[in-house]
Amino acid sequence: MTTVAFLGLGIMGRPMAVNLVSAGFAVVGYSRRPESADPVVRAGGRAATSIADAVAQADVVALMLPDGPDVEAVLTGEQGVFDSVRPGTLIVDFSSISPATSRELARRAAERGLRMLDAPVSGGEAGAIEGTLSIMIGGAEEDVERLRPLFEAVGATVQRVGDHGAGQSVKAANQLIVAGAIQLVAEAIKLLEALDVDLDAALRVINGGLAGSKVLDRKAAAMLKRDFTPGFRAELHHKDLGIVTAAARDASLPLPLGNAVAQLMAALVAQGRGSLDHGALLAVLDDLTAARGTEAANGAEARRRHEGITK
Amino acid sequence: MTTVAFLGLGIMGRPMAVNLVSAGFAVVGYSRRPESADPVVRAGGRAATSIADAVAQADVVALMLPDGPDVEAVLTGEQGVFDSVRPGTLIVDFSSISPATSRELARRAAERGLRMLDAPVSGGEAGAIEGTLSIMIGGAEEDVERLRPLFEAVGATVQRVGDHGAGQSVKAANQLIVAGAIQLVAEAIKLLEALDVDLDAALRVINGGLAGSKVLDRKAAAMLKRDFTPGFRAELHHKDLGIVTAAARDASLPLPLGNAVAQLMAALVAQGRGSLDHGALLAVLDDLTAARGTEAANGAEARRRHEGITK
Amino acid sequence: MTTVAFLGLGIMGRPMAVNLVSAGFAVVGYSRRPESADPVVRAGGRAATSIADAVAQADVVALMLPDGPDVEAVLTGEQGVFDSVRPGTLIVDFSSISPATSRELARRAAERGLRMLDAPVSGGEAGAIEGTLSIMIGGAEEDVERLRPLFEAVGATVQRVGDHGAGQSVKAANQLIVAGAIQLVAEAIKLLEALDVDLDAALRVINGGLAGSKVLDRKAAAMLKRDFTPGFRAELHHKDLGIVTAAARDASLPLPLGNAVAQLMAALVAQGRGSLDHGALLAVLDDLTAARGTEAANGAEARRRHEGITK
Amino acid sequence: MTTVAFLGLGIMGRPMAVNLVSAGFAVVGYSRRPESADPVVRAGGRAATSIADAVAQADVVALMLPDGPDVEAVLTGEQGVFDSVRPGTLIVDFSSISPATSRELARRAAERGLRMLDAPVSGGEAGAIEGTLSIMIGGAEEDVERLRPLFEAVGATVQRVGDHGAGQSVKAANQLIVAGAIQLVAEAIKLLEALDVDLDAALRVINGGLAGSKVLDRKAAAMLKRDFTPGFRAELHHKDLGIVTAAARDASLPLPLGNAVAQLMAALVAQGRGSLDHGALLAVLDDLTAARGTEAANGAEARRRHEGITK
């Protein structure tokens, strides 16, 4: 029986760890907040008291953390994974971080005789719960094959896309498309609301044609109701778009829509709405068209100042 | 047996008319280019020699024309549809035109005792051939119901979305999303090409997650090969985006991504590439990153002029 | 002594008419709001009771109206200018309207034996008061020369730029640059406010280099204080940007910055801030970065839901 | 007599060093390319054989280098400035680098008892030759005062804008405005070329009004002729816009126009045109509207495939 240490039991990590238990893996979960491990324990896993405790007996160490510095700290910090694992342990990082950081960590792992895969996922909380994530993997083919049963326990699409860092590169492209697709749906909703149409019927028929997408399937209805409960937090998507725009800049590559939506996601974060779902891009458009009390009054005054031949 | 006059037998109209014949309708086809009616005749329909000839005995008149002025000319011109149909004839306009023109034509039809529906479609040439179009319909509910068998002969999703013009409004929102989705895929392809990944695998796994879409299903593979055979011509999509941006402007509605992609589609048309598939948005990005011969040389010279302490 | 009928006595027209009086012209002013003519009368002009009354004895008819439909109504409406002037009267339209409308009105004037110039201005209320406007003129060279004393009474830069409509085309390009320049200053202010610099000193030194501009000279200080008293109303600039984007669309010309700022100006109008000064583009950026009460709370709740290994 | 070591004798540094000689400073110039020091020697300065040689007897060390890593290498590298100067030497960095790097280098200088100012400039090659640069300075007020005669020998506007790094922050805002202003002029030129106007007259009258700017004064004429000889190289402006977008991202600040023009500048660099003048932004627009040979043919073929009732 393969023993998996699972580090990071947030919205995504927790259901993934539970699915691994269900698929027959021996799972040792660790989170900085001990109560986060409860669902894993209830499912039949074990809660570790430290990173070192979690990984000591593991065959595989899985990570699902918010950002690159978190992954770096957990792997290379004192009493971290690199210090505590058995030689030959395979590390699989499900986090979404920059391709450059991912490559660098794989290099440092190799120096210690450890093998590593970057395996960011797409599909959101629903995909994590249902075990239907899309997993985009960078690293050695043989390591991907060795972990295929594990990947298939949490994902429906398991795809190696290249060497170390390639998974992260593909995730960046994925997040570019997702952010843009949400913004397009937001713009379409605003346009439909401004015109006189049956909104539910409209989104249904649009989704039936070439405009059809998973974003329309899964997010449009909540957006229409301005329900921005995450789901996937805007501040994480903001971080991902930072990876996208930095990669594009390194390649002197213009991304007209990618950069435009990155601006709008930055606005969401600047407004203190970073913990809302990324569908809250619609709220930025709502702001841009909402009447402003004070200034409107100010405007009325200004208008009185203005006298002309017409109106 | 219902007799349908079908006016406009282009890439979309021809297969739609053929599908109506197959579904048991008596179809009389008319096109300015007589040979365009051949497939309809081979399927069992009849070719008319004029608009008047086509519509004289029709129960239903269907139109599938490039733009508003075409529809207006065919309906209201001398010897046009309004002059030639029997009272009570139902006119269904599958063309994509502006909501305002559509409403105005419905009003003028009503003045003559004619009933009208706007019924633009999505799904492209493939959807027209397979009879799986999405049809977004504006007009009276009873007229939609009366024509439901006709709609179901050409489409898989048949949806009334409001009164006269509402079909066009929804089509505008649809075209906004489609153009944006193509541009996002183009940007993702450029990003993936700049990084070191397996492109086919990457697009497959991206399509398996929240970024999944019909545009990825149907267009990404051809775009990757720079095969821009239409499909749906950029110049028609340019026209559609003109409807989108005009509607947004009338509503003082900012559409950051919609307007950005409208600019890029305009560039395609300005470059004389308007008859390529709209997937050629990728060609604009290719241009923006392709090395320029003469100027590069010019640049080298300029560089020689520049002397500094470092590189 | 040349008699000038001046139609339209708003923020711009009023001081222009007064300057014409000061320069020795016999000025007959008309506005739909009679009190608007008071300053002209105080300066030594006459107030007319109707358009017909104003233009009946005029050698030159000058117009300064908000938009094309206003100009069209005043010229071609019943009891309008075309019906009431003496043959050979020269009409000079200072309004900013679309080049196409301008050409069409010149054509209709010519049919009646009237001569016309389009002569939109730049320089704002201050330029109108000081008589230092820039005037961009379309029409016959001899007519421009004939009116040169009149133009020099209201403007510092008087320039014929081509045939009928050319003045409007140049004004469109002018308004594109002005809107963009204001938005750039707004973005620079936000950036400087986010960093730790002495704002007044910063804007002063920026204005001393290649970034220097009239917009920095005249508008940056008020913008910094969020004083958006017009000046030039955003809703008029929104109208002008509609002319810009329509002209660009007709030419299939992408205007990446022009269209982006047109979106933001549309947002201002949608927010009911259309009667503020166009410098209020900064207020849109303020919105995009201002903390949102309710949603921030919503976000805090969402954050509580989220548990992870870090933070 | 104050001895100034001047490190970096490129397009900007060379004339600045010459102006210091003319103003009575004892100047020791150093460049990796010895011949770059020739004009300084001819003016009465001395050429050094190494950084150490240049700075050993200097009261002030001035730097004018392309980017942050260059500055870091020259200051902190082996046999670099920090290793070779006398205690108490004042270092003034005219280079444009990131505010964060600037602050960090000032901190490391202070650890060694050295004082430092960041003093990036605006005004281009012409401003450097004429000694009319705008200088935006970060650091201690007393150090700025001590160096005022030096600053006034090379610049017309000398302004302290805050503490260490503030000069760079203001330069970033400056470069945002300059890039945007050039792009706006490029868009206006394209619009005017598409319409039928006298281009020289048009730009003259535009420059007379609120749209007036130094960019119109100095760059529009060359742009109109498509003369893209630098001047200021696009690749350096691309670097500067990287500083702008990174600073904006750190502050979660959306910069709609700043980011849009950064994309277009990136395109210039990707096209191998980085060593052209930044006015070559117009060449990108030219590309976006230039007819494409092969694809146009391809398009003609596609058009033949398409048959419809109209055209």
CATH class categorisation of the largest domain in chain A: Alpha Beta
**H-E order of chain A:** EHEHEHEHHEHEEHEHHEHHHHHHH
What does the overall shape of chain A look like? globular
How many domains of chain A? The number is 2
- Helix proportion range of chain A: 40-55%
Regarding quaternary structure, what we see is: homotetramer
CATH topology of the largest domain in chain A: the name is Rossmann fold
At CATH level 2, the architecture of the largest domain in chain A is: 3-Layer(aba) Sandwich
* CATH 4th-level superfamily of the largest domain in chain A: NAD(P)-binding Rossmann-like Domain
Largest sheet of chain A: 6 strands, parallel
Number of strand segments of chain A: 9
- Computed Rg of chain A: 23 Å
Distance between the termini of chain A: 81 Å
Overall mean pLDDT of chain A: 92
Low-confidence segments of chain A, given as residue ranges, are: 294-311
Of all chain pairs, the largest interface belongs to: A-B, 75 and 75 residues
How much of the sequence lies in strands of chain A comes to 5-15%
**Helices and strands of chain A: which structural class?**
alpha/beta
